[in-house]
Design a protein that fits this description.
Membrane topology: Multi-pass membrane protein
Strand content: under 5%
Organism: Coniochaeta pulveracea
Number of helices: 23
Radius of gyration: 29 Å
Protein name: Bifunctional lycopene cyclase/phytoene synthase
Number of domains: 2
CATH superfamily of the largest domain: Farnesyl Diphosphate Synthase
Shape: elongated
Helix content: 55-70%
Pfam families: SQS_PSY
GO molecular function, one term: intramolecular lyase activity
Structural class: mainly alpha
CATH topology of the largest domain: Farnesyl Diphosphate Synthase
CATH class of the largest domain: Mainly Alpha
Number of strands: 8
Bound molecules: ligand LST6JFWI
């Protein structure tokens, strides 16, 4: 009895697993847990008989002076533990690299896959089939020194082929960072560990069954191949899960209700939905929404990566709609053009909601003629707006905040009215600033909470919900104040002054003077004032976020905290002015804010 193999675990595998657990902990959720568990069970069950056969036939031995002693089917406990810890380590690396991706974008139907993907899948399939056959021939035909290499190939390649058939196109479509690196990183690490372990004789391959060649040092070709193919199997397995999860999350017409953690039965259903039933227009729209989010907001793009499931998709689609609508107004050159978009946006909402403007109530229409809506979108909006309008989840979102949002954009349009008219600056008093911020941002808070509660909060009481909705509006206002504080100079350049005229009057200023000299000392004083108010609102609303349902709470805190961090940075650098193209919050600081937010929530 000895501890050499156990020491390999204590020195190399367990510390890495602990480190990765610490790093991944803030983003791990129930679905990840089931995914890893399922992979471990599959990997363990698949490796057990194979490894036992290797030991029984004398291909592989563990000198008794390096293991503690207890065995199962001839396999030392240390080796059994290795199956588990390798799967765990590689799974965590895969999850860390894949969390920033919205997998829905990479779904392919039989018809829409580009030729190169079809060809790569076919080529990969043929290679794996060929390697399986070659493995059989080497192990049982030629045998001798080819035995071990053959046994590795004939065992691993058929499993790899199955996952390739199931998810090959999806795997090929994913960025290489998310597939190749999670294979290569743990493989290289295990090669180095093996080099050290073999050098010390922890396990050995019998001389008559191996090629006797080393990749480097004393690392046998067979061992190197073993780690490479097993890590490939783990990554392919996880990607197959992710593909079916993406099907479940992406298509409400196939899966109207999705629990926080889809059951194995649902995953199977995801497998058996033919790709011809995929709504590829929706996938293209989701892709466009992600591109828009990535291009326009670093804070929300970063935050979106910690959301999961269908909530993540709905939030990205909501962002896309808001951004597209805001851009239509901002990019218009005249007041008339701005008002045309405002009117069209109201008309778009009227297809889905019935607004009683006098009573301030909005109800969802029972019947929507989707053909009519589609025709309206195509004829009245530019092609770039189409998917954002079509995919807005109006069946879940309340109508009132959406109309209020457009009311806010209407206030923005006022900045473009004729010069010298009294209406040109709509923010006259502080109450106008509050109303404007409520419209363009308080509404976003309300819409976000509505989505979270719809997806994860069936048990939320009406009283708790009302308190959260009120807090969400206040939090939205806080974020808008940070936005205005950051952009005083940028906004002035386009003729917009959101600082209340009553504030300006206190120091003998006018909006025109701010536009002429946006860097005057007073603007920095007003910035402080806006930020003080933003943090006062934040102090009230932030504790109420703790009442948000699991699954939505942590990620939403990340979104809010990442935005408020802009305010903290401005407070630390009172004279800092936004430079176009430069992030206000550095990536490392965002990462730290994210970790703190996830742990605190
Ligand atoms: C994670 C994710 C994808 C979230 C999406 C959130 C979302 C739908 C944002 C919409 C943003 C948008 C384009 C709105 C149009 C009006 C506007 C410009 C509002 C300003 C946002 C800043 O956007 P911008 O793209 O300009 O940002 P950059 O600085 O350029 O990066 C606003 C400042 C409003 C943002 C307000 C919110 C996200 C609401 C916050 C409140 C909550 C999340 C609710 C918290 C819950 C409780 C219970 C308190």
């Amino acid at each position: 009895m000895a501890y050499d193999y156990a020491i390999v675990h204590l020195k190399y595998t367990i510390p890495l697993a602990v480190l990765l657990t610490g790093v991944a902990y803030p983003i791990l959720n129930r679905v990840h847990f089931y995914q890893i568990l399922a992979l471990i069970v599959i990997a363990f069950t698949a490796t057990l008989p194979w490894d036992s056969h290797l030991i029984k036939t004398g291909v592989w031995t563990y000198p008794s002076e390096v293991v503690i002693g207890p065995k199962w089917l001839g396999i030392p406990y240390e080796e059994l533990f290795f199956f588990i810890i390798q799967t765990y380590i590689t799974s965590l690396i895969y999850i860390l690299f894949n969390q920033p991706l919205l997998h829905a974008q990479y779904l392919k139907s039989q018809r829409n896959a580009p030729t190169w993907i079809n060809l790569t899948k076919l080529g990969g399939g043929l290679i794996l089939a060929g390697l399986s056959a070659l493995g059989g021939y080497l192990a049982f035909g030629i045998a001798g020194e080819f035995t071990y290499l053959g046994l590795i190939l004939v065992w691993a390649c058929p499993f790899a082929l199955i996952t390739w058939i199931l998810a090959g196109k999806f795997i090929i479509s994913l960025p290489w960072m998310c597939t190749v690196l999670p294979v290569l990183l743990p493989t290289t690490y295990l090669w180095l560990v093996d080099e050290l372990a073999l050098g010390r004789g922890t396990w050995s391959i019998e001389s008559g069954t191996k090629l006797g060649r080393c990749l480097f040092g004393v690392l046998e070709i067979e061992e190197a191949t073993f780690f490479l193919v097993t890590n490939m199997l783990i990554v392919f397995g996880l990607a197959t899960f992710d593909q079916y999860l993406a099907v479940i999350y992406s298509f409400p017409h196939l899966f109207p209700e999705v629990p926080q953690a889809p059951s194995p039965l649902m995953l199977l259903q995801g497998r058996f939905k033919g790709t011809s039933s995929y709504d590829m227009e929706r996938i293209r729209g989701i892709k466009e929404a992600v591109i828009r989010l990535k291009a326009k907001s670093r804070s929300f793009y970063f935050a979106s990566s910690v959301f999961t499931g269908r909530l993540r998709i709905d939030l990205v689609l909501l962002y896309s709609f808001c951004r597209m609508a805001d851009d239509l107004i901002d990019d218009a050159t005249t007041h008339e053009e701005m008002m045309t978009w405002v009117t069209k946006l109201y008309r778009f909402l009227d297809f889905y909601y019935d607004r009683d403007a006098t009573a301030g109530e909005t109800t969802r229409r029972k019947k929507v003629n989707q053909l009519e809506v589609d025709k309206f979108i195509v004829t009245e909006f530019p092609p770039s707006a189409k998917s954002a309008l079509k995919l807005l989840p109006t069946d879940i979102l309340p109508g009132h905040p959406l109309y209020l949002l457009i009311d806010g954009f209407k206030m923005d349009a006022q900045f473009r009215t004729e010069k010298n008219t009294t209406d040109r600056f709509p923010i006259k008093e502080e109450k106008d600033l509050i109303q404007y911020s409520l419209c363009v941002a308080g509404t976003i808070g309300e819409l976000c909470v509505s989505l979270i509660v719809y997806h994860f909060g069936s048990s939320c009481s009406p009283v708790a919900l009302n308190a959260m909705l009120d807090a969400s509006r206040q939090m939205g206002i806080a974020l808008q104040y940070v936005n205005i504080a950051r952009d005083i100079q940028v906004d002035a350049k386009i003729g917009r002054v959101y600082l209340p005229m009553s504030w300006l009057k206190e120091v003998d200023l006018t909006p025109e003077k701010i536009i002429q000299d946006p860097l005057c000392p007073e603007t920095f004083m007003f910035r402080e004032r806006l930020l003080d108010e933003a943090f006062r609102l934040w102090t009230y609303a932030r504790p109420l976020m703790n009442g948000l349902p699991d699954g939505g709470r942590g990620p939403m805190v990340v979104a809010v905290e990442n935005y408020m961090e802009i305010g903290r940075i401005l407070r630390e650098n009172p004279r800092r002015v936004r430079t176009v193209g430069k992030a206000t919050v550095p990536v490392s600081r965002r990462a730290w804010v994210t970790i703190k937010a996830l742990i605190s929530a």
